[in-house]
Input
Amino acid sequence: MAGNYRFAMDQKDIVRLMIASVGSFIQDRLINQEERTQHKEQCAERLAAEDGSNDKDSEFRYSDQAVLANLDWGIEALEEAINTSNMETKLARLDYAEKMLQVCAMLDSDQQTAGVPNFYLSAWAHLNLSYLWKLRNNVHNSVLHVLEMFSIDPFFSRIDFAPELWKELFLPQMSSIVGWYSEARHRLVMEAIPDSSDLSFTADLDQFFNESLIFSMRPEQVEKLQQLEQLYGDSLDENTRMFAKYYKDCMNSDSNTRPKVIPMLPIAEPPATPLHEFSRSIPDYVKFGPVLPKSAGFSAVLKSKSNMRGPNRMNVTSMPSQDLDESLVWDPQGDMLEENEYESDYEPVDDYINSGNPNSASPSGAKMIKDEESELKEHVNPIFSPIDSPKTRSPKISSPKPDLQNLSPKTDVHGRKEPKSLLRLLSSRISHSPVPTSSPSSPQLSKDYSISSADSDGELVEKQKSSTRNSSRPRSMSYENVNIVLLENSPCNESDEGSQSCNSLPCSEKMTSRSRPPKDFVCPITGQIFNDPVTLETGQTYERKAIQEWLKRGNTTCPITRQPLCSNSLPKTNYVLKRLITSWKEQYPDLAQEFSYSETPKHSFGSSPLKDMTLASSPSRTFNFHIHNNTNDHINERRKRFTQAAKSTSPTSVISQASVETIINGLKPYVTCLCTSENLQECETAVLAIARLWKESKGDPGVHAYLLKPTIINGFAEILSASLSREVLRTSVYILSELMVADESVGDILTSVDSDFDCLAALLKNGLGEAAVLIYQLRPAFAQLSAHEFIPSLVQLVLNKTEEFDELQFVMEPKDAAIEMLEQILMGGDKKSRSITALSLISTNGIPALIKCLDRVEVRRSIVSILLCCMHADKSCKSLIAKRIELSHVLDLFHDGNDSVRGICINFLSELVLLNRRTFSNQILQVIRDEGAFSTMHTFLVYLQMAPMEQQPATASVLLQLDLLVEPRKMSMYREEAVEALIEALRRKDFPNSQMMALDALLSLTGRFTFSGKSYTEALLLKIAGFDQPYNALMKPERLSKPESEMVESMEEEEQAACSWEKRVAFVLCNHEKGSIFKALEECLKSNSLEMAKSCLVIAAWLTHMLSTLPDTGVRGTARRSLLDEFINVLQSSRNLEEKILTALALKTFISDPVALEELGKYAKCIYGTLRKLKKYTAVVTDIQKALMNLSSVNATELWHCTEVTELDSSTNGEVLSLIHLEGRVLSSHSDGTIKMWDSGKRVLRLIKEVREHTKAVTCLYVPSSGDKLYSGSLDKTIRVWSIKPEEIHCLQVHNVKEAVHELAANAEIACFVSPATGVKVYNWSGAIKHINFNKHVKSLVMTGDKLYCGCSGYSIQEVDLGNLTSNTFYAGTKKLLGKQTIHSLHMHNGLLFAGGSSVDGTAGKVFSISSKTAVGSFTTGIDIQHLAVNSDFIFTATKCGTIEVWLKERVTRVASVKANNSGGGHAKITCMVADNDVGMLYAGSSDGKIQAWALE
Output
């Protein structure tokens, strides 16, 4: 055969062959789900066998079990990806499968995991990874994984994983090895065959290779044969690895574009050169894998790999003492080695077992020789085709022991094996081989002791047939277990279900003593000897009463064949069979007595035998790693309870039939009374009597069927509505509940009339707790439950004590039913209705009652679900739950539950720890960490790896919080996995819900929560930035709910704990994989979802702010690269004030980093205006502005921009002489004596009030720092005091100072003004005027505290001490011989004195520090400064010609100039100027009576 595959190919041809062959193989596997399932079961069976071969008390490390679980979960996820049509789900499951499978793929092949060799697990993982990459349309990677599988484990790859692919890719290269093996084996056989010189090389030696030949071989010949087989298998493995490496080199060389050395074609060299060219077809005895069934585990392979020789399997003398394990069948016609699926149709006899004489196995002993010969022949040829590997398992045969009971073989339900025996393997060799002509035949082959496969072997035979795979070849007879005397007489196998099957041989007529009666004498339903056999039209025979009961239950088919029965009546008794049975009973009275009808029946007749068998063998996970439920629907799980609660009854009720009939006859008068009587008392008595008889029947199906009549059901319903007796009502509910368990149609009858349900509801509300059981069984809709307001009654029922020693045992406790109903009510409806229902439950004190019931395992899940719903509705109840709950119950529920239950537990725990007190939260976390029977953190970690996508963020959050209870700077596997899961969820762009859950989980990690359960992390950040309103609004209810003393005592401790926790969380999140969380947050900030972007901004701002409090570990650069651009974008584009403040707080962190500050400087121009607007809300903006202004790379000119927004004409009032800005209002004074008040809130000035009480020009206005008064000075020689209100000003006082007032500064005690004379006048409001003369004319005044600064002629500034009215020179400027130098304007702002005047030597003014009395800056301009205005960022100077120059306040650098409009075409000049520090407005008044306004941006 190998010769047919010889051909020359270049590298590209090999690559194409690999892609075509592997692609076709994997495509077939992906299409054929059944084949994948079978393959998984086969591999799992081998794992289970290895598990069974270990000591029962042996334990494996948790990590080993986790590795096996990863493999299982990976295969499951891959199956989900194959079966789903949703592309998002497919991609997500493929990613998850790859992550799980890579764990096993990277195992060290020289080690073991949980007793399983790693090379097997790794190869299996690579096979599934090849499927995965095929689903991703990457055949190249798929091929590489397949080749890696053959390279890691060629042995199991060619017998378990991909035998057909091995034949196609590797077998053509192995022709020389196959030829060598054939020749070597031929020589060994020739040495053992007498007169072999007459045989040719091509002779078929199989006809000579029999048992007698094996016994004639010398021990050294047997040893050589064993060594030959071992060497042959090693050669196949070694060369498979070699060619797998060559194929991989070809694939990798082809995949790279750069030049690479072309791999050389290897040559498969046999251990020795064959003498003949092997060109003919491969003979049957040449196979490519040992006889290693799936149940054999890995021990043989591991022994071989460790060069350890096991017991001599060819030693025939040791075979009788070995345990027999697997029954294998060799079919030479199809080259198929398969398990013995069918048991023998013949029964062994007891005489042979009891005799103990080996020679009685057959008349001449030749039979034993034949068996031994066949056994030896099987092991001389232990190589089989991997594609024909065993598919199913056969029942085990126990070791021979004197005890007859031990001779009945049992199959371990866990798939564990007893030690294997070569004898068992060899004996199965001839099970399906043609019978040689020389083989001795049995005198009896087809009499009473042989039954066809269609006969009544019971349900086990049917089950085995239905579960058999790839077994279509017919069989004539079975010769299993023929070689050893004890096996030949072994008793029948009896399955756990009671079905009988037998492994037997043809036996002589003398073998008449039996351990069991013949199968033809036993009813397949009852498992007992026939008493009245009837043979149906289908050919099957049953006990009359058993088949009658079968038909009475409504069945219309044959129990075994399932063929429909045409006749309604049973045939006559099969007297022929009955006479045979009678004769046999006389011969074996002991057995007849043992299997008489006095024995308890072995089958349940509640349903058909085959149906029961199907239920008993419900599908389960192949692995024992972890059991998953395929459904998450809790309602379906709850409904199963009633099915399980049904009482098992006798399968045929043959024994109790008479008593049942008596009970039914006794029921009839009471039932009649119940249905027809008009006397309530008689009906109540009838109910109690029916209940008594029902208990006596022990729930017999016949009584069940009798009471299921609608009239009887309605009779009980009428009793419920009419009776006042609690005992009668409870009894009626009990009977209806029991009947409903047996038949759900009872529920249909009760719900067909609304009044029946209303009656049950009324009973429950009136205190009949048992009504809750029946209501729950009726499965009412949410609308029905919500309409009756059950919450108070159900809570009261939960609060009630359980009645002890109650004679009525309901299918479930009323308290349990109440809890289940509460969950149904809470889970139904929309979010609003759930919240209302939960609040109602809380108000009725239901939470403490439910917490006390957590020890009830049946309803534990429902209680946790209810408590979770309550916490969602009212987060303030979390503290109550946390104080009272026993968390060990929740953890036990998590350990024992399915995925759905675990998800509820995780959500519950993650919500429970979000408490307003950090110290209490830490206590709860510590309890979670320490409680439970298992390691909670290990369990959470394993669940995190396999949890559904929507559960991963919450699980990761809880796991991380548990881990952070210790010092976070120590490495932790749990921490790394948890943070990675959260970041991975943030990266799932295609799953926005998963991203939102991850953001919520991250926000919960901050630990900042109010008593009501709301997170105040954002409000706290805003408060840190100086914006207190949200925080105060959120905390106000908290302060009101607690006494002040309690808050003061606990606040400091809690704040310390909260700050410590924040730092731990932030440190772990920021430093995971060098700040990878910032990259994930960057993507989320780009989301189109406003909700997601806002949540992400809060998290990003919090983490960035926390970086300033943490030691620098090098992640700030990552944060800057990831988030700086996004923060700038939010600052510019967001319309939400709070978002801008959060961004500003985050940007403040970056200004301490020179690199970040330089990058921030690139955005200075576009963000400066926004920052200026934010200054009135947050102080952090000032720090950012200062940092930007001090950057040498920032052009200050670019930071300035203004827009003229309005121009008002007040020329009718003359010149505008003075302007004052005060809290959204502008006050102007005019040359005609008018004072006007303007509204400046919306930038456009709106006149509010106009007064004219001065008779001449109002030259100056002044408002002190207190802002409560307005002072005005006029040329009419008066100073007026005004009260300022939002909509008006009112003159309070008029003071005649007898001189014209040109400049004014005042407070509540004195007024300082400038008159035409030199110096300054001080007026004390009582009429006294003090003249402080320093021989200089004063042009401007500014007052601060008890100091007065005067800008004077001679370019000097005088400082007047208002306390003692003395003056001194603050600044004396340079004097020039020509011209007059004067300080025209003074302005005080934030401790700085700004002075502007005549330009001297290119300087027109200076900036002085009041504290140091030194100049800190100067106005370098050649134009005189007439007026000054200052805000937080800029200085504005006005000249005579109407030009306003703008100076940067920090550096006193000119950045821009503004030209005032002169629409009149004259020579108007600026007479006054004022700047609004809050909204960035500049106002200027001119000599032509106009007021102009500019918006500063």
The chain has a mean pLDDT of 75.
